[in-house]
Amino acid sequence: MAGKILIILDFDRTLIEDDSDRWVLTNMGLTNPFYQLQSTLPWNSLMDRMLEELHLQGKTVNDIAVCLQQVPLHTRMIEVTKTAHALGCDLKVVSDSNAFYIRTILEHYGIYNCFSEIITNPTVVDDRGRLRIFPYHDMASPHSCDHCPPNLCKGSVIEQIQSSISESQRKRLIYVGDGRNDFCPTLKLEAGDFVMPRMNFPLFDCILNNPTLVKAKVHKWSNWEELATILHELINNISNEEEIKCLTGYQLNSLECKEAPESANEPLNVVTD
Ligand SMILES: [Mg+2]
Ligand SMILES: [Zn+2]
């Protein structure tokens, strides 16, 4: 019944412990050019410009990969990702980082193949051997969301995912994030879904300040140990609940039961904090 579960994870400071852009900037000596250009370019273009800087300094794509392989990823997150995948959950990353950084890090930790999709800013290595980052949304046909940066509205990504799943295949969504840009997708979640904000980070504050706007059940976390434990529990509880639903549906259809088993109507018994 874990096949009924879709887990969507933000990447920076959620799946990994640091911010991948910040990691490359600080560990590859880009702090000065970053501060010089910070106010002149939107984030997405600025990161692409920083990669031009690295290329001019003679740094290769492989040098960037080696730097990214040092990014810490908590062992419990590796474990829970592998378990969720093995149980049949669908896992996706939705991130404002970029395809090269995310793939490099997840492959390094051996969990890239656990994800069915990485939805993020695309990258290419051009004919000069320089890594380029492009916006996720086509700038010629911008998204209409006022809350998100022009290159990526995570809310519209969630809507696309939701509309691509037929009613009979409907999945229970678990969204995990920390940033302000994780609030837009949070608002797209439905009752029966879950949002897991990182405690005392912007998403957590947005939810706290707008509790009536959020339909999903909220489970906060403050470290990766806790995040992995809650994810495990949610997967178990949702699986059990879906099994009961299925069994109840089967009994109602084929055995003409007049009443569903009592447990089918019990609320989810989830431990949060
Ligand atoms: Mg983040
Ligand atoms: Zn948005």
From TrEMBL:
Cofactor(s) this protein cannot do without: Mg(2+)
Annotated Pfam families: Put_Phosphatase (PF06888)
Binding site for Mg(2+): 10, 12, 178
Domain of life: Eukaryota
Keywords per UniProt: Hydrolase, Magnesium, Metal-binding
Entry binding sites for substrate: 21, 96
GO function term, MF aspect, one: phosphatase activity
Active site: 10, 12
Keyword Amino-acid biosynthesis assigned: no
Record flagged with keyword Metal-binding: yes
The name this protein goes by in its record: Uncharacterized protein
